[in-house]
Amino acid sequence: MERIDKLRTFLAANPKDSFLKHALALEYVKLGDEAGARKLFEELLTADAGYVGSYYHLGKLLERTGEQEQAIAWYEKGLAAAKAAGDRHAYGELQGALDDAMDV
């Protein structure tokens, strides 16, 4: 909880910081607070569509909660963002996640 408290404090001082939102969302995932994590990931990606790493984590979270179609939609948005950023590594991870999600 100490890490979460620190991230919340930093985020309160810098509410538009995508890295802090992403880090806090990952901490929520670790705690099983999927609603809190989802809210942060969605806020982050709405404000900063170029923060490519969050698409994968949000998609996986949605898959775990049984929201397959929404996961696929976020993976597809992430693929477009990764392509625009020229991030081949993220593109490959997102493509793999999308392929797996579509095989279910």
Description:
With 104 residues, the chain is mostly helical. Helices cover 83% and strands 0% of the residues. The protein has a single domain, classed as Tetratricopeptide repeat domain (Serine Threonine Protein Phosphatase 5, Tetratricopeptide repeat). The protein has helices spanning 2-13, 18-31, 34-47, 53-64, 68-85, 88-103. The radius of gyration is 14 Å and the shape is globular. The longest helix has 18 residues, at 68-85. It contains six helices and no strands. The mean pLDDT is 96.
Strand content: under 5%
Please, how many helices? 6
> In sequence order, what are the helices and strands, one letter per element?
HHHHHH
Going by CATH, the architecture would be Alpha Horseshoe
Distance between the termini: 35 Å
Helix share bin: over 70%
Arithmetic mean of pLDDT: 96
CATH topology: Serine Threonine Protein Phosphatase 5, Tetratricopeptide repeat
Q: What integer value in Å does the Rg equal?
A: 14 Å
Poorly predicted tracts of residues: none
Number of strands: 0
Largest sheet: none
Q: Structural class of the helices, strands and pairings?
A: mainly alpha
Quickly name the level 1 CATH class.
Mainly Alpha
Number of domains: 1
CATH superfamily: Tetratricopeptide repeat domain
Q: Quick gist of this model?
A:
The radius of gyration is 14 Å and the shape is globular. Helices cover 83% and strands 0% of the residues.
